[in-house]
Specification:
- The chain is an alpha+beta fold.
- It is globular and about 90 Å long.
- The strands form four sheets. It has a seven-stranded mixed sheet with strand order 3-4-5-2-1-8-9. A two-stranded antiparallel sheet has the order 6-7. Strands 10-11 form a two-stranded parallel sheet.
- A hairpin with a 5-residue loop joins strand 12 and strand 13.
- It contains 22 helices and 13 strands.
- The termini are far apart.
- The longest helix is centred in the C-terminal third of the chain and has 22 residues.
- Helix 15 packs antiparallel against helix 16 and helix 16 crosses helix 18.
- It binds adenosine-5'-triphosphate and magnesium ion (MG).
C-alpha cells in the first residue's frame, strides 16, 4: 500500500480544490523496494498560501516548516506530512543552497530537481506512477543514478555525493558508472557542506548493509568527509594478527558491528590513532602502542567537528579508548567491567571488540579462540543486565547508614562498602541485607573497626 489513509485524505482535499497532488520521493522508492515505514512526502501544484487554506478548510493542522522553499507540514494525529509546492531550484551559490527557488506547474519539472532517479518518482491515484527518469528500471537493476548530468548535479549540491554513498550502502545498490565518476572527481566539494549534514548522511551510510563495499570503494569520499581517516589508507600492519591495512580493517570491523549509529561510529574511529603511533621494529614487525588513547583524542576531535551530541561523543570516545584493553579474555570479570565503565558501555565494548576481532586474521587460532570467548562474555553481560545483578556500591542491600550504625565513621564507611561489593561481585556473599550485616558483625574487631 503506497498511501496511508491520512495521505489519501490530503491528496483528495487538493484534488477537490482543483490542484494536483502526489506522493513523491522516498515513499515511492520504498514501495517498489517492498519496504514500508518511512515518511510520506507530498508534492502539490498549489502555491504555499493555498496549501495552508486547503489544509485549514479540511480541518488539518498546518505548521509552516519551510515556507521559503514552499513546504508546509500537515499534522494528522501523530503523523506529519511534508507538503511542498512543485518547484525548480535556481542556480546554486555555494554547492548547497539554490540562490532562488521557483514554483513550477508540472510534477515532471519538480522531479527533475531531485537527486537520484530512484528518488524522482511520484504517485497519485488518478495519474498512477510518474517516472520520467527511469527510476523503476534503476530499482530493478539496483542502481543509483543522478537525475540529469551527474557532474552538474554534484556541483550544484555536493551533499548529494554523500547521499549517493548512503543509498548505495543502505539499499545495497551500485552507483551507475557516470554518476560514480562524477562524484569521485568532485568529492573535494564536500568541504563546502555543513559538517552536520555530512554527519547525518554518514551515520545512515555506516548503518547500511553494503557499508564495507562502500567504505572501500569510495575511500576518497570518506576521507574528504572525515579527513582524520586519510592516514589509515595504505597504513600497513605487518603483524601476524592482521591481513589488511588499517583503513580496510576499519571498514571490515564497521561492517561486523551491530547496525547502531554509535557503535558503527566507534568502529569507524577505533583505530584512527594507529598511523600516528606506528613503529616498525628491527624484524620488520609493526607496533601500535597506545593507539587507543591517541585514537580517543582524535575521535573526540572528529565528533566535535561534526557537532555530535555530548552523549554520543562520550559513548564513542569511551569505546575507542577501551577497545584494546581487554587483555586476557579468559580472565575478564564482567561485573568489574560494569563497575569500571558502566553496564551498557561494557556490553557495547564487548560488541565493539567482537567486531574488531572478526576483522583480524582469521587464520590465527588465537583470534578464533578470542572470538568465541568474546561471544560468551556478551551473553554473560546480557544476562547480568537482565538480572539487574549488582555492580555498584549503590546496588548493595546495605548502605552507608547501616555501616555507620555499626560504629564506623569517615572514610572507613566507603572502604567497607567497597569491600562488601567486592565480595558480592566475586560470589562470596549474597547481596541480601541479612548476609551482609551478618558478615560485618562477624568481622568487627574489638576496637570497633572492621577487618577490610
Ligand atoms: P529517507 O528514507 O532517508 O527519508 P528520502 O529519499 O525520503 O529517504 P530525504 O532526505 O527525506 O530522503 O529527502 C526526500 C526527497 O527529497 C528525496 O527522495 C529526494 O527526492 C529529495 N532530495 C532530498 N535531498 C536532496 C538533495 N540534496 N538534492 C536533490 N533532491 C533531494
Ligand atoms: Mg524522507
Amino acid at each position: 500500500m503506497i498511501l496511508d489513509d491520512n495521505a489519501k485524505r490530503i491528496l483528495c482535499a487538493f484534488k477537490a480544490a482543483g490542484y494536483e497532488a502526489y506522493a513523491v520521493g522516498g515513499c515511492v522508492r520504498d514501495y517498489f523496494l517492498g519496504v514500508s515505514g518511512g515518511d510520506t512526502d507530498i508534492a502539490v501544484s498549489a502555491p504555499p498560501p493555498v496549501t495552508e487554506n486547503i489544509l485549514a478548510e479540511n480541518g488539518f493542522k498546518a505548521v509552516e516548516t519551510g515556507i521559503k522553499h514552499g513546504t508546509v507540514t500537515a499534522v494528522l494525529g501523530s503523523e506529519s506530512y511534508e507538503i511542498t509546492t512543485f518547484r525548480a531550484d535556481g542556480d546554486y551559490d555555494d554547492c548547497r543552497h539554490p540562490r532562488s527557488v521557483s514554483f513550477v506547474r508540472d510534477i515532471e519539472s519538480d522531479l527533475a530537481r531531485r537527486d537520484f532517479t530512484v528518488n524522482a518518482m511520484a504517485y497519485s491515484p488518478e495519474k498512477g506512477f510518474v517516472d520520467p527518469f527511469g527510476g523503476r528500471a534503476d530499482i530493478k537493476n539496483r542502481l543509483i543514478r543522478a537525475v540529469g548530468d551527474p557532474d552538474k548535479r554534484f556541483r550544484e549540491d555536493a551533499l548529494r555525493i554523500m547521499r549517493a554513498l548512503r543509498f548505495s550502502s543502505t539499499l545495497g545498490f551500485d552507483i551507475e558508472p557516470q554518476t560514480q565518476k562524477a562524484l569521485l572527481s568532485r568529492c573535494r566539494l564536500l568541504e563546502n557542506i555543513s559538517r552536520e549534514r555530512i554527519y547525518t548522511e554518514l551515520l545512515k551510510l555506516l548503518c547500511g548493509k553494503n557499508v564495507f563495499a562502500v567504505l572501500v570503494k569510495y575511500q576518497s569520499v570518506i576521507c574528504a568527509a572525515v579527513p582524520q581517516l586519510a592516514a589509515a589508507v595504505g597504513c600497513e600492519q605487518n603483524t601476524p594478527w592482521h591481513c589488511m591495512d588499517v583503513y580496510c580493517h576499519i571498514a571490515k570491523a564497521v561492517s561486523f558491528a551491530p547496525a547502531e549509529p554509535e557503535l558503527r561510529l566507534a568502529m569507524l574511529l577505533h583505530d584512527i590513532g594507529k598511523p600516528l603511533v606506528k613503529r616498525t621494529d628491527e624484524g620488520g614487525r609493526d607496533h601500535f602502542k597506545n593507539h587507543a588513547a591517541v585514537g580517543a583524542e582524535l575521535a573526540k576531535e572528529v565528533l566535535r567537528g561534526f557537532h555530535a551530541s555530548n552523549k554520543t561523543t562520550e559513548r564513542v570516545v569511551t569505546l575507542v579508548k577501551y577497545h584494546q584493553s581487554i587483555e586476557d579474555v579468559g580472565a575478564v570479570s564482567v561485573p568489574r567491567w560494569f563497575n569500571r565503565i558502566g553496564a551498557q558501555n561494557t556490553l557495547d565494548l564487548f560488541r565493539v571488540r567482537l567486531a574488531d576481532l572478526k576483522a583480524h586474521n582469521m587464520e590465527k587460532d588465537g583470534v578464533r579462540r578470542e572470538i568465541s570467548a568474546m561471544k560468551s562474555l556478551i551473553a554473560e553481560a546480557e544476562r547480568l543486565i537482565a538480572e539487574k545483578a549488582p555492580y555498584r556500591v549503590s546496588d548493595l542491600a546495605v548502605n552507608g547508614n547501616d555501616i555507620t550504625a555499626l560504629g564506623c565513621s569517615g572514610r572507613e564507611v566507603g572502604k567497607v562498602l567497597n569491600r562488601l561489593l567486592d565480595l558480592v561481585i566475586s560470589g562470596k556473599i549474597e547481596n541480601n541485607r541479612e548476609a551482609l550485616l551478618g558478615y560485618l558483625k562477624d568481622n568487627i574487631t574489638a576496637s570497633n573497626s572492621f577487618i577490610v
